[in-house]
Amino acid sequence: MRSLRGTLTVWYTVALAAAVLAFGLTITVLQRRAAVLAQEERLAALAGRVSGVLAQRAIDGHGPLVDLSFAPRIRQLRIDVIDQLSLIPGLVLVLDTTGSGVYGSPEVQRLTVAGTDLLRNRVASSRLDQQRFAITLDRTDYEFVAQRAPARTPSILAVAVGEPAIEAGASFERLGTSILLVLPLILLCAALLGYILSSRALRPVSQMIDELEAITDGRSLHRRLLAGALQAEELARLSKALNALLARLETSFDAMRRFVADASHELKTPLMVMRAGVERTLTDPKTSPEALLPLEETLVGVRHMTELVDALLTLARVDEGRMELHREPVNLGDLLAETFETAQILGEEAGVDVTLELPGGPVVVDADGGRIRQLVMNLVTNAVKYTPAGGKVWMTLTGTPQAATISVRDTGIGIAPGDVARVFDRFWRADPARSRTGERPGIGLGLAISKWIAEAHGGSIAVTSRPQRGTTFTVTLPRQVAEPGLPAGAASAVIES
Ligand code: ATP
Ligand code: MG
After folding, report:
1. Most buried by CB count within 10 Å: which residue of 144, 252, 300, 428?
2. pLDDT at 484
3. Which residue's CA lies nearest to atom 10 of ligand 1?
């Protein structure tokens, strides 16, 4: 599962990396453009210097600039002019009006003949007073500024000064290396910063999740999320919306609970009246024998309904937190012996052998005897009900100074591994298709109530089962009440069913 924090961190890092790259690229482009402009200015200044030297030397009275005295076929500037021009760096070329190169700096002289010709033609064809051009000579790119010769030097056509061009590739390469060096560091910082920022931004959300997770069932619906003044606007709205939802849920839960409680309460008395009436008619000698069977069937139905209504009322009260435990010291050995008698009767009817195993001494716990009896009866009834004839059921009690353990084991049909976790759910039955009044009648509330009873006593209930081999339910009850001074029954208000 992807976490929002992780996603935000990744996006933050990606965005920052992209921003850094874009920034680096922009800086490089701008830098390059500035360097090109600076180079142009520098070349123009150098060309100006060349023109200046020529203009100055043309009027110094030492004769014509282009000296033909050595060899008439070689056109060349006067030696003193050459000396002065040789101080100017770069590729310097001076053309006279015949188009011949009358001065070439050492770098120009190093060019091949083809390169020199190309340059000369390009300079000779420049028509503007000052012109910048790029040219490739002998496979190297150069930038040149060519200027028309000053008016005072009629024998000279143009001067040109050049330098190797500023390579775009090199500056981008430099950018690449520096980014490669710095980027991992930037990414690390970005990831760290992104993580911290998103954690901070999401902290109220996880707080909200914690608060919501604490609302586990119908009884904690009265809780509300904290809507702090410091909360971001969106989260404040979310809290408000969730609180409104909780309020609506609480109202409908309350209405539902009240309905179940009222309905089961109202049904109790008429059911008792019906049951008493049917039982009286059954035992009345004046009742005709044909009516006995339907009356017995009615009685079974009425008993079943009474059980259902009792269970519903119990759970409705548990949900309302109105179910109280009446704790007193209970000798579990005696309690198990009593339930064992009933279990034996049940076992005899079903052809199941029930055995009781008690420890030597008494095991006394501070508990609600009635409720513990109900719990044990639920387990034993189940064990007998879900064990075919010929099977066995064991009721065992063990005790340590800290806890008492009651276990009910059977050799019955067992529970499928996938269903084990659901047996304590309300109304859950392994085979819902089976009629509620048929072979193994039941409502599916017995274990839900048993679980509540165990937990309300600060204990627990666990189940292990193997299909077709048998099932063991184990109830553990603490022997000391957890907190001294806690009023009897207070546990029911804290324990959730
Ligand atoms: P009732 O509410 O009348 O007790 P029930 O017995 O069906 O009805 P629970 O006692 O809550 O309901 O049990 C739930 C289900 O768990 C049962 O329907 C049954 O499928 C399964 N179960 C419970 N105890 C055993 C057992 N000892 N062996 C096999 N399955 C069991
Ligand atoms: Mg049951």
Report:
1. 144
2. 42
3. 446
pLDDT of residue 71: 65
CB count within 10 Å of CB 359 equals 13
Q: At what angle do helices 369-385 and 332-350 cross, to 10 degrees?
A: 30
Ligand 1 contact, 364 CB (< 6 A)? no
Residue found by looking up tokens 């030492």 in the block: 62
Pocket test for ligand 1, best of 315, 429, 464 (most atoms within 8 A of CB): 429
Residue type at 489 in one-letter notation:
G
Ligand 2 centre to CA of 312 (Å) is 14
The two beta strands, 470-478 and 460-466, are antiparallel
Instruction: Tell me the residue type at 445.
Output: L
Phi, psi of 68 (to 5 degrees): -110, 10
303: which 2 tokens?
């008993």
Q: Which two tokens stand for residue 174?
A: 């430099």
Predicted confidence at residue 471, as pLDDT, reads: 97
How confident is the model at residue 70, as a pLDDT? 65
The verdict on the CB of residue 447 being under 6 Å from ligand 1 is: yes
| Per-residue model confidence (pLDDT) at position 404 | 96
Q: What b-and-e string marks burial along 251-282, b requiring 16 or more CB atoms within 10 Å of the CB?
A: eebeeebeebbeebeebeeebeebbeebeeee
Cα distances (angstroms) measured from residue 117 to each of 137, 328, 458: 10, 120, 105
Count the residues in the chain.
497
* Grouped pLDDT means (10 residues each) for the chain, 497 residues: 82 88 88 89 94 88 76 79 92 91 93 93 88 91 91 88 83 79 86 89 86 80 77 84 92 88 89 94 91 92 90 85 88 96 95 95 94 96 95 96 95 94 90 62 89 95 95 93 44 35
* Conformational region of residue 316, where left means phi above 0, alpha means psi within -120 to 50, and beta covers everything else: alpha
DSSP characters over 184-207: HHHHHHHHHHHHHHHHHHHHHHHH
* Secondary structure of 75-143 in HEC code, one letter for each residue: CEECHHHHHHHCCCCCEEEEEECCCCEEEECHHHHCCCHHHHHHHHHHHHCCCCCEEEEEEEECCEEEE
Does any ligand 1 atom lie closer than 6 A to the CB of residue 380? no
Task: Please report the pLDDT score of residue 432 as a whole number.
Answer: 66
The predicted structure's pLDDT at residue 115:
93
Q: Is the CB of 412 under 6 A from ligand 1?
A: yes
